[in-house]
Specification:
Layout (H helix, E strand, L loop, with lengths): L1 E5 L6 H9 L8 E3 L3 E9 L3 H10 L3 E3 L2 E8 L10 H8 L3 E7 L15 H33 L5 H19 L11 H7 L10 E6 L11 H5 L5 E6 L1 H8 L3 H10 L6 H13 L1 E6 L4 E8 L4 H8 L1 H5 L1 E8 H7 L2 H6 L4 E3 L9 E7 L8
Parallel strand pairs: 1-5, 1-6, 4-10, 6-7, 7-8
Antiparallel strand pairs: 2-3, 3-5, 9-10, 11-12, 11-13
């Protein structure tokens, strides 16, 4: 999963990125096409279950699920359209962490000389909608040209796409994002390659400080009609300072400020909820590994996250739950209790499932 950290200038997004990735060696700013800048770090997802499994199986290798964070620069409050380099970067992430300034600091003035998180969110969502609209309009022009020329695809196929993109156009025109539409699987497949910005989930982070008066906003108001959205508040500067401390000092300051979890835990939990993600595990003496999948992922699809050969050659999934293994203490006792089972390809994988895939390896084609 790749999450882009975005926001208007001086919102604190780079500070948040530093707090999240302090222990993970970010790549440093990378300039793309001389304009957009990104800084990237791959972070392990904290997981108490995988720590328990590691102690239980004592494997050679332990692999946590991973999240790629990208600090994306180049968004301003006066852009009608994004540069192509920036648009490419934005379109390739799975979701956004939108950092919104909710503190006053005369030494670092807001680019619009005011503090209004609700308005800042609207500015960026409007910019996303404009850029999506331009893509939709270009696609409609292409479809209309194809219709008029004839001799290519069947007309019903072209008409089907025209109706879909007209629906997208109407939705964007009425100031709602593409994520508000109930699209069929066929519709989702047709638009998947466009990377529409308003279709992506967004975690809104209200960036406070420990000094200025905090503005309160009704959650439904600051969402501005966007559906796949989570909203949290934190103090990124303080979080960054705590992230740089050793564990004992960090625990002391977290207690002083009433923090029950680290910024990484808080962001990842919110991101998993926003993206509708859950974890399953593969276990053995060689490796314990956590895998992130979306809700309603079936066993065959989950096998594909491990290896495409497992998906194509899927036979059965051996399944037990982490909770049962922890409670009963061993695989043999889980089996004796009747809680170890074989599942078919349509089985919906549950959070905490421990799975072993039975599959038929592909045959090597030899001429």
């Amino acid at each position: 999963m790749k999450l882009g950290i975005i926001g208007l200038p001086h919102c604190g997004k780079t500070t948040l990125f530093s707090a999240l990735t302090h222990d993970y060696n970010p790549t440093g700013k990378k300039v793309v096409d001389g304009k957009a800048q990104i800084d990237t770090a791959i972070v392990s997802v904290p997981d108490e279950r995988i720590e328990w499994l590691s102690n239980h199986y004592n494997p050679t290798k332990v692999s946590h699920a991973k999240i790629t964070f990208q600090d994306i620069s180049g968004i301003t409050n006066n852009q009608e359209t994004f540069p192509r380099s920036l648009l490419t970067i934005l379109s390739q992430v799975d979701g956004f962490i939108h950092v919104v300034r909710n503190f006053d600091d005369p030494n670092i003035p807001h680019p619009m000389q005011r503090i209004n998180a609700e308005e800042d969110i609207k500015i960026l969502l409007d910019e996303f909608a404009i850029n999506d609209m331009l893509i939709v309009e270009r696609k409609l022009e292409s479809l209309n040209s194809e219709w008029n020329k004839g001799g290519g695809r069947d007309r019903p196929e072209i008409e089907y796409e025209q109706k879909l993109f007209e629906q997208l156009h109407h939705t964007l025109e009425t100031k709602y994002g593409i994520d508000t539409l109930q699209l069929t699987k066929q519709h989702q497949k047709l638009i998947s390659g466009f990377g529409f910005l308003t279709s992506k989930p967004m975690l809104i982070v209200l960036n406070d400080d420990d000094k200025s008066q905090k503005q309160k906003y009704p959650v439904n108001t600051i969402r501005h009609g966007k559906l796949k959205t989570e909203v949290i508040s934190l103090m990124s500067k303080l979080e960054m300072e705590i992230a740089q401390l050793d564990q004992d000092d960090a625990s002391f300051f977290m207690k002083e400020y009433g923090m029950s979890e680290t910024v990484l835990d808080k962001i990842i939990q919110s991101a998993y909820k926003m993206m509708s993600l859950k974890s399953f595990y593969t276990v053995g003496n060689n490796e314990i590994r956590a895998w992130a999948i979306t809700d309603n992922t079936n066993a065959q699809q989950a096998a594909g996250t491990i290896h495409s050969d497992m998906q194509s050659g899927f036979i059965r999934a051996e399944v037990m739950s982490f909770a049962d293994l922890k409670e009963l203490g061993s695989e043999s006792l889980v089996k004796a209790a009747g809680k170890w089972r074989l599942e078919g390809k349509e089985y919906i994988v549950q959070d905490g499932d421990i799975i072993n895939i039975r599959f038929s390896p592909p045959r090597n084609n030899q001429n």
